[in-house]
Amino acid sequence: MPYPYHWDHAALMAQGKIYAVGGYIGSEGRAMDQIRAFDPETSEWTDLSPLPASRHHVMASVYPSPANDAFVIVGGIDGELGDHATASAWLYNITSDSISELPNMPRTRAAGAAVTYDGLIYVIGGMQDDGVRPNLSAEVPIPSMMVFDPSTNEWGERDGPPVHLEHIAAAVFDEGIWVVAGRWGWGEGHLEKGEVYIYDRKTMSWHEGPRLNQPRAAHGVVVIDNKYLVTVGGEYDGTPLTSVEFLASSSLCERRESEYQKVRAVLNAPVGVLSLLDRIAQADCDDVRGSDRRWIRGEDLPIAAKATGG
Fold this sequence. Notes:
Elements (H helix, E strand, L loop, with lengths): L9 E5 L2 E5 L2 E2 L4 E2 L3 E5 L4 E4 L11 E4 L7 E5 L2 E2 L5 E2 L3 E5 L4 E4 L11 E5 L2 E5 L20 E5 L4 E5 L10 E5 L2 E9 L6 E10 L4 E4 L11 E5 L3 E5 L2 E2 L2 E2 L3 E5 L1 H17 L4 H15 L10 E2 L13
Antiparallel strand pairs: 1-2, 2-5, 3-4, 5-6, 7-8, 8-11, 9-10, 11-12, 13-14, 14-15, 15-16, 17-18, 18-19, 19-20, 21-22, 22-25, 23-24, 25-26
Helix pairs in contact: 1-2
């Protein structure tokens, strides 16, 4: 990536390219207005039209459209205003390399996560400027999740996760929105946590998921081929992390069970042997579903990475 490097930025993938939006230049003490695209086929970065205003701790997600040719950019901190969270919402069109305004969010927000799910855009967690204190506050009252409906061009609010976190990462996985870890509190009293919360859109409710082995914040998550949810890097107690953890989709177990049942049906084996095989097959699925579901540690990153853009 060419200088200046993005830090505390938003990152997403659309139309086969990776986009880095906004961010912070620590060495210069200012927010960025840059949007860049990385093409994996050419291994080249391209500078695109800048944001209307500089933002760091900004959030972005794909705009739901048949062409998949746009993404929304929401919130973030405007360094020009003395580190205040904003409620701005913009639409970036990939085809025309242009930015237009969307209705502002009902609340200011930064350092949260934005995800697109079933035609709606969800903004979850993060910090908001409470309008009273000059700094940022993690004490965001519930409902703390904002939802944008492109069909009506309107924002609404719903209950957020039971514990409000900032510097989180989120992704759509296993037919739900997964909020993975983050930081609780702000300033000297902050604490990185490893809790995972899952949003069920059908019931509009949250429940806890399997906890990470390593608590973290300012990390990234990515879904690989709808089979694995992977969390990468971040920081814990001020120390950047190299650790990687992944969680297998419950659908993998369903596929394995289906394949096993086909084989079992043609086996000419004693009942005792079949019973043993059944127990082995069940144990093989314990790591991807139910109360025994757990994150698996992967190979560490070659270097520590934090503030990776989610």
